[in-house]
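User: Hi! I'm a student and our assignment asks us to look at how structure tokens line up with a sequence. Could you show me two examples?

Assistant: Happy to help. In each example below, the sequence comes first and the structure tokens follow. Example one:
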Amino acid sequence: MGTSENKTQPTDVTPESFVAAVEHPVRRADGETLLEVFAEVTGLKPRMWGPSIIGYGRYHYEYESGREGEFLMTGFSPRKAKIVVYVMPGYTDRSAILDRLGKHKLGKSCLYINKLADVDMDVLKELIAAGFEEMKTLYPNWKAS
């Protein structure tokens, strides 16, 4: 069972070219801003994961079932409907930060934002940093690319 690969794999597309091709002007501008924010917070260069996720860092996971693979440590996607921010440990212990963030919705490890103007950017940076630091602790053998 450990041999099946994660469907979302790193690609050779540059994150900058992906963001430049985003049709919606606000979503494209927000994507450009997030490229800078994630680079600042993580100190890493971005990499495309699949057709639409911009990731920073990667970690190796292994489930009890034996399935294993690699995935991004943190990242985002400027999707058509909303911006999605990926904080891989999830958001369950982040209520104090989320209460200060601004307008958003949550998934398990996804934060959905209509536009960056709806949130406090300093709080968003704090949230990204908290998740990234937790991932580095959970996966000490993580890699930068």
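Example two works the same way, sequence first and then tokens:
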Amino acid sequence: MKRLIKNIAMLFTFLFVLFSNQKVLAQDFKSKEALKIFARIEEGINTGSIDKFSNYFANRNYLSLTNGVAGYYSANQSYYVIKDFLSVTQPLNFKLTNIVTETSAPFAAGSLRYISNGIRGTATVFISLQFIENQWRISQITVN
């Protein structure tokens, strides 16, 4: 009887470790995917190429930009709103300096140096993601 109890205890311990590790691995994978998206956004904004990250837009995104645009937009509208914004507010340099991915709603913040109408400026950019239909999607971009 003692041996049976010992074997059952070892089995439960094994199963606990196995499932705990799978949860950690799944979280690690999700975290790496979020990092990949943030890297694509950083690259896309730096080059003014929305195509580098537009396929990550959620069906409904909140945008708030320094040109006064603010509200919820479809993925298609978001593409054109940001494309128009970056054609006027031309990026000189964009760097994400604070990235948090080990949460249910990953976010990143960074600094955008730009030139607009011949005047150089700096803005803070905030981006957040949501896990929708088994993948990360951009849910918010704010440029202040």
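Here is something you could point out in your write-up. The CA atoms of residues 107 and 128 lie 4 Å apart.
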